[in-house]
Amino acid sequence: MDLIGLRIRNIRKIKQLTLKEAAKGIISVPYLANIENGVKVASFETLMHIAKRLEIPEEALLIGNEDLNKELLQELKQIFDLLVFSNTKEAGDRLDQIAANVDLLCESPVIELSFYWLQAGFYYKTWEFSKAREIERKYLNSNEKRVVESFPPDLLSYYYYGQAVKHSHATCDYQLAVEYWEKSIDLTDKAAFQVVFQVGLCINYICLNNYEPALKHIECAWNLIKRFPSKDQERITAILYLYGYINFQIGFMTEAKRKFEEVLVFFNMYPEAKTMYSFLVRFKLAEIERVEGNHELFDEKIVCLYEELMAHEASEIGFNNNDYLVITELMVIFAEQGSVLEASNLLAIINKVTEQVMEINFFVTYTETLLLYHQNKQSSYEKKMLDLLKKIDESNDPALIERVKKHASKHFADSTKYKMAYNILA
């Protein structure tokens, strides 16, 4: 009856019963707490009384891990595969089918917890953060020490993966995300999973502006994937893109350009990868032109990207997460240039995203601030900019921090507020 205590705790909290209310007339409060925490094992009779108190079928607390529904367990494993390989549409559909057709209280706690960890991971991966947090609050918030002690390997995999995605996307605690990606790697012997997890590690080290380990992990992913048959090498596009991105960040523009152009070649082999990375790669190629001083060509490329993004928006096909990264970057560039219409249109697209990654919020606020500046609303601009300056150092994007502070400092210097301008850059 491993993990039954977690089920008791979850149901008790959903029914808003205190430990004292749930234990009254059955066992002592400390004993019930120990059952919930997995320290004590409840007797058959005690579980029947607790089930009655919680107003649930006795079977919900009497089923054990030896009673696993193997068919459902296999379904959950397949859903995990879909999540790892970013097939979120099918993963979401299959999770919905389980939610609609399976009474999880009649399944073992391992299956119930597996479902909720996968569901939370799905919501974090698709940026539906409030739904993910609600799942965690209802069913999953417990002492992590018990996770390591009690969870079987599959369930532990779902937990580590979900936490890695959560801290990569929602909390932006990239160091913690790194720890969970590393745990995910340690737990699997599947080379295809390891490729995805190594890529996850690389991305989070990039977010930490720590490029040496980022390069090490993308090299690990490269060494793994090149052994795969060509039909299974779709993620080579992500790996090459990250190679290019790291080289761009450390100033090796020739190598960065070569890697990005290699990605474009692979689009012909892997159309799905083109959907995920086309805007992103072409934006980085445009940025290389800017860095190399080809400003006219840079402007041509970003205008072309803008027009394609607006056409894509009109088609109602929908954007992926990588597209939103490009939209936010372009939005700020146009806002800095004073291209109010273009910046406003891109801002409108981003504002349709109901739950945004924290980093995107900084880009949104900066764009809104710049639009006030170009609309000559000086007092509103200054108020919003000062509010942004209070929190911009929390951003993980040094370039954005520098851009915000430079714009603010120049404005206040032009307004003869020299001390304020100096303090911003100090």
From TrEMBL:
<dbReference type="Pfam" id="PF12844">
    <property type="entry name" value="HTH_19"/>
</dbReference>
<dbReference type="InterPro" id="IPR011990">
    <property type="entry name" value="TPR-like_helical_dom_sf"/>
</dbReference>
<protein>
    <submittedName>
        <fullName>Lin2191 protein</fullName>
    </submittedName>
</protein>
<dbReference type="InterPro" id="IPR010982">
    <property type="entry name" value="Lambda_DNA-bd_dom_sf"/>
</dbReference>
<feature type="domain" description="HTH cro/C1-type">
    <location>
        <begin position="8"/>
        <end position="61"/>
    </location>
</feature>
<dbReference type="GO" id="GO:0003677">
    <property type="term" value="F:DNA binding"/>
</dbReference>
<dbReference type="InterPro" id="IPR001387">
    <property type="entry name" value="Cro/C1-type_HTH"/>
</dbReference>
